[in-house]
Amino acid sequence: MSFFIEDALAEGGSIAAQAPDIISQLMVFGGIFLIFYLLFIRPQNKKMKEHQEMVSSLAKGDEVVTNGGVLGKVVALHDSFVSIEVSRNIIINVQRSAVAAIQPKGTIKGIKN
After folding, report:
1. What pLDDT does residue 45 have?
2. pTM above 0.85?
3. For residue 87, which of 103, 110, 69, 71 has the smallest C-alpha distance?
4. Distance between CA 88 and CA 30 in Å, rounded?
């Protein structure tokens, strides 16, 4: 007792006439993919590229903030790690990818009272 199928057949006449065109379906899916690309994928790739450039441009003496919120000065650079001095004679090693941002010179002095 399916009322919906009988109604659809009564109005359309045949099942083949009601089937949507495959090209229009592909255009809809292509449009959805384009929207996702423009809104999500492209900006994320751009942000990743900028972060990679920032990490590769690290140098001794730069003041940085890590993803964990640790502020310090770069004292040594290694292949995949960075040594950061967070206080006098206290040095921590973090991965290069854990560096979130390079701060302007004098940031550490401005915070210390």
Report:
1. 97
2. no
3. 71
4. 57
